[in-house]
Known about the structure:
With 480 residues, the protein is of the alpha+beta class. The chain is built from 16 helices and 16 strands. The chain has helices spanning 2-8, 11-32, 45-53, 79-91, 103-111, 171-179, 191-199, 210-219, 249-261, 264-274, 293-317, 322-390, 393-406, 421-427, 440-446, 451-479, and strands spanning 56-61, 64-65, 69-72, 75-77, 94-99, 117-121, 131-133, 138-139, 142-147, 163-167, 184-188, 205-209, 225-231, 239-245, 411-413, 434-437. The strands form five sheets. The chain has a five-stranded mixed sheet, sandwiched between helices. Strands 6, 7, 8 and 14 form a four-stranded antiparallel sheet that branches. It has a three-stranded antiparallel sheet with strand order 2-3-4. Strand 3 and strand 4 form a beta hairpin. The longest helix is centred in the last third of the chain and has 69 residues, at 322-390. The chain starts with a helix and ends with a helix. The relative contact order is 0.09.
Amino acid sequence: xxxxxxxxxxxxxxxxxxxxxxxxxxxxxxxxxxxxxxxxxxxxxxxxxxxxxxxxxxxxxxxxxxxxxxxxxxxxxxxxxxxxxxxxxxxxxxxxxxxxxxxxxxxxxxxxxxxxxxxxxxxxxxxxxxxxxxxxxxxxxxxxxxxxxxxxxxxxxxxxxxxxxxxxxxxxxxxxxxxxxxxxxxxxxxxxxxxxxxxxxxxxxxxxxxxxxxxxxxxxxxxxxxxxxxxxxxxxxxxxxxxxxxxxxxxxxxxxxxxxxxxxxxxxxxxxxxxxxxxxxxxxxxxxxxxxxxxxxxxxxxxxxxxxxxxxxxxxxxxxxxxxxxxxxxxxxxxxxxxxxxxxxxxxxxxxxxxxxxxxxxxxxxxxxxxxxxxxxxxxxxxxxxxxxxxxxxxxxxxxxxxxxxxxxxxxxxxxxxxxxxxxxxxxxxxxxxxxxxxxxxxxxxxxxxxxxxxxxxxxxxxxxxxxxxxxxxxxxxxx
Length: 480
């Protein structure tokens, strides 16, 4: 009943989005398939022969993973679909989209060679056995959502003994089953089923790509869900690539060359339409007028019409005389005023959308920064406890280095918000280069938080510092 009720409220929105998306996709195909829109990929003779012998490739299309890959009324849609169409146009291949199976079933089809290409797929050890991977084409944050209630789940450790809904075959299922057996995994067919499992009390939390969950929440009016934390168990898990069946390595090379030939401007319209300017965001906000890149196209068209009318006015005014000339001038000025008003209104809509987008991005950035403060506190506790249990001096060094980085006394590693210390512990190597020193307080101040927000964050930082002092005393006691 809950699913039926919620879906019935979205029929109008789905219809409008379908029409808008079809217009946008048609425009993308028209513009991006033009030879002038990208550099020509240089294929070898063997690759050209392979394309001639295999002109059609079978590509996976999911039913319900917006805004990346979904299907409405039998029409494949989403950023991954538009991106694949660009790649296919650049490589002179035709795409036969296969829709219907679940994500886990698609992976099995690829394993058996019954489908040629898997889109928006993260590279994992298991998948490397049956897929070759291109370089990633989109980076999307992964998040855990819970029901709106007191914050009892803020990290993976809080999920111990709890039930986490995850789409069957999703990379997180493989990782969590291997590394966190204390978490009970509830396998679902798709993201929306995972979210319903949380709303209906069958699961304590759900995990999937942040943009997908955010999109579905807005599209289907799913109230009662909240972001718990950003999942950063594996920094590569957010990188989505194109996976190609293992026995066709030449197809992977062809697609990679086509991808490399695409210029940023070729992808800007699709990225803006589906994802905005940042790939970690969902497509639309409930308060946005979702024209996306189409509004810019329309404004360009109206500007062109305006210029043509100016020339037409000058031409007709030279031919007309008397009262007809006066009437013509009045009508033309009314028409020009209408076009000018339309351009002005569209600009106002774009400005409002930009403000909403900026606010949404600020929210995501703020969550990541706050989560960084929590993560450094967790890392300090982990190092202190491990040193006390093992006596290994490495963990004492890591503890001191984490403190120094947080206070700005040591260089902050690049992309420090991603998983870092787990790699260091596992390998002994530092996975990324160092950046400039920057204290956590300066990070918070530069983020643009309000005075009240900054006061609360500083209070949280002070509490974390007091905990670190207790941990330092515990370490000294362990050292004797």
